[in-house]
Amino acid sequence: MKAKDLKNKGVPIKLGADTYELKFNMNTFCELEEVYEDINQAFEDLQKMKIKAMRALIYAAVKTQKESITLLEVGELLGISELEDISKALNEALADAMPEAGETAPGE
Questions:
Q1: Is 0.70 topped by the overall pTM?
Q2: Count of beta carbons in the 10 Å neighbourhood of residue 47
Q3: Which pairing describes strands 10-15 and 18-23: parallel, antiparallel, or unpaired?
Q4: Is residue 63 within 8 Å of 77, Cβ to Cβ?
Q5: Nearest to residue 23, comparing CAs of 80, 104, 98?
Q6: Where are the beta strands (DSSP E) in the chain?
Q7: CA distance 19 to 13
Q8: Percent of residues, the chain, with pLDDT higher than 70
Q9: How far out from the chain centre does Cα 46 lie?
């Protein structure tokens, strides 16, 4: 998959008093790589439902909309009671970002 294949769709997510669009594009993945260093490890940790990975991915998505936010601020805005809803939003946003079957050229 190439960067041009990513869709620019998002899922609204409320953090504190603000609503952000949780969407995954090249900027989000670059931010995630900055925080997590190994993007593949980040996604492996997401599959294992590691909270650190969830916080990093949400931070990466929010950071593209609010440049001044910090990783610690995102952590403070995330509540344990909201983890299930956040997990669903992450899954939906990731699914929305990926191209449909047949949308990429053969061999990609």
A1: yes
A2: 8
A3: antiparallel
A4: no
A5: 98
A6: 10-15, 18-23
A7: 6
A8: 81
A9: 10
Residue type, 4: K
* Alpha carbon distance 60, 29 (integer Å): 7
DSSP state of 40: H
Length of the chain in residues, anyone? Answer: 108
Backbone phi and psi for residue 22, each to the nearest 5 degrees, phi listed first: -80, 100
What are the pLDDT digits (tens) for 1-53?
444 445 566 788 888 889 998 888 888 889 999 988 888 999 899 889 888 99
Place of tokens 């440049």: 67
**What b/e string do you get for 83-99 counting C-beta neighbours within 10 Å, with b at 16 or more?**
eeebeebbeebbebbee
